[in-house]
Write a structure and sequence with these properties.
The complex is a heterodimer.
Chain A lengths: L3 H10 L6 H23 L2 H17 L6 H23 L1 H4 L24 H19 L2 H11 L4 H8 L3 H18 L1 H4 L5
Chain B lengths: L11 H16 L3 H12 L10 H4 L3 H19 L9 H11 L5 E12 L13 E8 L2 E8 L2 E7 L5 E6 L2 E5 L6 H10 L3 H11 E5 L6 E6 L7 E8 L6 E10 L2 E13 L17 E2 L6 H11 L4
Parallel strand pairs in B: 6-12
Antiparallel strand pairs in B: 1-2, 1-11, 2-3, 3-4, 4-5, 5-6, 7-8, 8-9, 9-10, 10-11
Helix pairs in contact in B: 4-5, 5-7
The chains are: A mainly alpha, B alpha+beta.
């Protein structure tokens, strides 16, 4: 995404130097991570795009109600979490009518080849990445969301709010997810150099 | 929480997951979604294409109906003393004429489902649901909020029901696929006001409200069977447009009250009443993975039937 995109978004949002200018940068900064998170939960790129699109639109339309500069990312991930869970449980038909399952390999697992001088590294990275993807996909959705939100820096309280549960239960979800993932990734965790 | 915020280095699993998500995020092409967000947020300010007046009146039947209705009002006017307050019937007739013109009208719709068990148990279940309804003749389309999801669905001029369930995917239902109960609800939603007002004039007793003459209560005439148990009509005294309509029906053992509040009248493009008008290209209609049983299930759930 080029720098020109920032200006375009601002112009389309109203074009005036108002608080939306900050939101413009905020959207651009958070969008890839929000899509990646939604993709991890939904395993369908098209659905992830839809969910993320809707969540941003709703939040930005309420920019006068929320302090998005301060709370935007927290609210965004909460909103994405709700929407993904909504899809998978309460209103499945509203988002996906096809019930597609399994990991989405449309993105591929190609690791950016930034270390051509270390020929084995891309292969090892790919192996690790596949192991993490596989481990995450085996977790129940609530555990997966809790662990991912934790890894993204959310507090236990924020995770509880996103998952509509108590902080202590959020802690349990994180703990169980870490345990399962630790077993799955044991060969990699035992080698700190990796 | 800030993007890029360091995580607790003490937990290696968190670090690996964070690194994994970072790599996924790096790989994501967010440009198309950014474009969609930009377009969605810009939409309210956009001017929709104008519908040409010529095209509007090209429908001979509609034009004929409007002329006939206008002549009827003229005939009624000859026998009505101008100084005398209009009767409920006269007010409804004026509204009938106004609604014979093929304008697109947007109503905010609220529906309450009141469940009255046959055994007389006073327990009731009310499920309010809000939507915005655009209607023209027997066509309609609806902006509906279900959970966190925004859905557009409607019925086109061929009678096919459609549902845009994602920006690039939609379903279309042939009229033969639509169960009678749903077809009935669609007829109510299409708010064929000229038809409805005609029925109200012929089959209902009309009574104006004591305090507000422009509010009319309609109840079926004795001996007339009608799906409607009661209709309340609020007609704008100046424009003669139906501002508010409240329909109470009894279906099986449920009392269903639907309220229509006029929000705006303007010309919409024909495409707004078609599925394609609510999808972004490239789109897929009737994805093959959605089998007939699933289609039926979706249709029932759309109308709140489990």
């Amino acid at each position: 995404m080029g720098d020109g995109m920032k200006g375009d978004l601002l112009a389309d949002l109203g074009g005036s130097p108002d608080p939306l200018e900050d939101l413009n940068d905020w959207v651009i900064a958070t969008l890839p991570r929000a899509i990646a998170y939604a993709l991890s939960l939904l395993k369908d790129r098209s659905l992830a795009d839809d969910v993320v699109h809707d969540c941003y639109c709703r939040l930005i339309q309420k920019a006068n109600v929320y302090n998005l500069e301060r709370d935007g990312t927290k609210l965004l991930f909460r909103s994405v979490t709700h929407a993904c869970f909504n899809h998978n449980s309460r209103d499945r038909f509203a988002l996906s009518l096809d019930g597609r399952g399994g990991p989405d390999h449309s993105q591929g697992f190609e690791v950016e080849d930034r270390r051509m001088n270390q020929p084995l590294q891309p292969i090892l990275d790919r192996e690790l990445e596949e192991a993490i993807a596989d481990g995450l996909s085996r977790l129940p959705m609530a555990q997966r969301a809790a662990l991912e939100l934790k890894s993204l820096g959310q507090s236990q309280q924020e995770i509880a709010e996103a998952l509509e549960t108590t902080p202590s239960n959020a802690g349990v979800l994180i703990h169980r997810a870490r345990q399962t993932m630790a077993r799955q990734l044991a060969p990699y965790l035992e080698e700190p150099s990796r | 929480m800030n993007v890029g915020e360091p995580i607790n280095p003490q937990d290696p699993v968190d670090s690996l997951v964070r690194a994994y998500l970072d790599r996924q995020a790096e790989r994501v092409d967010s440009g198309p979604v950014l474009d969609r967000i930009t377009r969605s947020l810009a939409q309210p300010g956009e001017r929709r294409p104008k519908w040409s007046l010529r095209r509007r009146w090209s429908n001979r039947w509609t034009l004929g109906s409007a002329i006939a209705a206008a002549l009827l009002v003229l005939a009624i006017g000859l026998f009505t003393l101008p100084a005398r307050p209009l009767s409920a019937e006269a007010i409804v007739r004026e509204a009938w004429v106004v609604h014979a013109s093929p304008l697109d009208r947007c109503y905010r719709v609220e529906t309450d489902f009141e469940f009255t068990p046959l055994d007389g148990d006073p327990k009731t279940i009310v499920r309010p649901r809000q939507t915005r309804l655009w209607t023209r003749g027997d066509r309609f389309w609806i902006e509906s909020e279900i959970g966190l999801r925004h859905l557009n669905w409607g019925r086109d001029e061929s009678g096919e029901l459609w549902l845009a369930f994602a920006p690039r995917r939609g379903l279309r239902f042939d009229p033969t696929e639509i169960p009678p109960a749903i077809a009935l609800r669609c007829d109510v939603l299409s708010v064929r006001l000229e038809t409805l007002l005609g029925q109200v004039l012929s089959d209902f007793d009309l009574q104006t409200d004591r305090d507000e003459a422009n509010i009319i209560r309609a109840t079926p005439k004795p001996g007339r069977r009608h799906l409607l148990r009661e209709a309340i009509l609020e007609i704008d005294p100046e424009t003669k447009v139906l501002r508010r309509l409240e329909l109470t029906r009894v279906f099986t053992n449920r009392t269903i009250t639907t309220r229509f509040h006029l929000e705006e009248s303007r010309e919409l493009d024909d495409s707004q009443y078609q599925l394609e008008g609510h999808l972004e290209r490239p789109f897929q209609i009737n994805p093959p993975e959605i089998d007939p049983q699933r289609r039926r299930q979706i249709l029932l759930r759309l109308f709140g039937i489990r």
